[in-house]
Amino acid sequence: MAPSQEGPKEEKTGPAKRPVMLDLASYSSGQRLRSLDLSANILTLTWEDGAEVTLPALWFRDNCPCGSCRHEETLERRYLFLDDAPPHLETAELVGEGHLRLRYADGHGADFDAGWLRHHALDLPASLEADPPLWGAEHEIARLSHARVMGSEAGLSEWLGVILRDGLAILEGMPAEPGEMLKVVRRVQEPKPTNFGPTFEVMTHPKPVSSAYTAMGLEPHADLINYAVPPDFQVLACLKNDATGGGSVFVNAHAVAKALSETSPDSFEVLAQTPVEFRFHDETCDIRHQAPVIELDRSGQVRRLRFNNWLRGTLAAPSWRAAAWYAAYAELWALVRDPRFRVTPRLKAGEMVVFDNVRVLHGREAYDPTSGGRHLQGCYLDRDWILSRLRLAERASGQDR
Amino acid sequence: MAPSQEGPKEEKTGPAKRPVMLDLASYSSGQRLRSLDLSANILTLTWEDGAEVTLPALWFRDNCPCGSCRHEETLERRYLFLDDAPPHLETAELVGEGHLRLRYADGHGADFDAGWLRHHALDLPASLEADPPLWGAEHEIARLSHARVMGSEAGLSEWLGVILRDGLAILEGMPAEPGEMLKVVRRVQEPKPTNFGPTFEVMTHPKPVSSAYTAMGLEPHADLINYAVPPDFQVLACLKNDATGGGSVFVNAHAVAKALSETSPDSFEVLAQTPVEFRFHDETCDIRHQAPVIELDRSGQVRRLRFNNWLRGTLAAPSWRAAAWYAAYAELWALVRDPRFRVTPRLKAGEMVVFDNVRVLHGREAYDPTSGGRHLQGCYLDRDWILSRLRLAERASGQDR
Question: How would CATH label the architecture of B33-123?
Answer without folding.
Answer: 2-Layer Sandwich (3.30)
